[in-house]
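Quick start: what a row looks like.
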Amino acid sequence: MLAKRIIPCLDIKDGQTVKGTNFVNLRHAGDPVELAMRYSDEGADELVFLDITATVDKRKTLSELVRKIATHINIPFTVGGGINTVEDVSVLLENGADKISVNTSAVRNPQLVSDLALNFGSQCVVVAVDIKLFNGVWKVVTHGGRTPTDLVATEWVKQCAASGAGEILLTSMENDGTKAGFAIDITREISQSVNIPVIASGGAGTMEHFIDVFTSGAADAALAASIFHFKEIEIPALKKYLATHHIPVRL
């Protein structure tokens, strides 16, 4: 079995790391370069960097910050936020990103996923899928959770996989920042519906939550932010805990 991955996420606003609950009430969480270096040293498997205001403010992702982070770490690095074109991706990859993440732009223009996979390879393309419950149905939301769509989560993920996405980054907006656990049932449903890796995001609060999402949720990787930023859970301790519970991880 492939090792399960632990992925810290840096939500960036105006060049600084922030964290909120359900994507609002943001608070400062540290310097992104320093945090990235710390996670690389602590044994994080990958790093995700999301410019959370890029799409809303119609700004391009901060390529200069990407370059700074990339020169200080030696783990795979995914960058998202405000990516709309093949050219946007070229700039980020040239500045040191290993993968890119698209979300709102993919919903607006599904052809973008195919174009990016064709130009850069599926292994480079992560489709971030933010989901919320509407009358018992998990549907896709965009613009940091502010804009609902009619897309049913499972169907959209299948479409993305068929278009060439290499991974899905699945965030439950119901769970995000609550520390009450991941959205296990929908994570499992989506993991079982596609043959590409699914990264679970939203709700991590305890080490047990990671066991749940890797076993019951069938996730390939788990992403978290504030619990790592504020050292509520430290990555080396988490990995040892998972290993003792027979979850394959890279120690």
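That is the whole record. The chain has a mean pLDDT of 91. The domain at 5-244 is CATH 3.20.20.70 (TIM Barrel).
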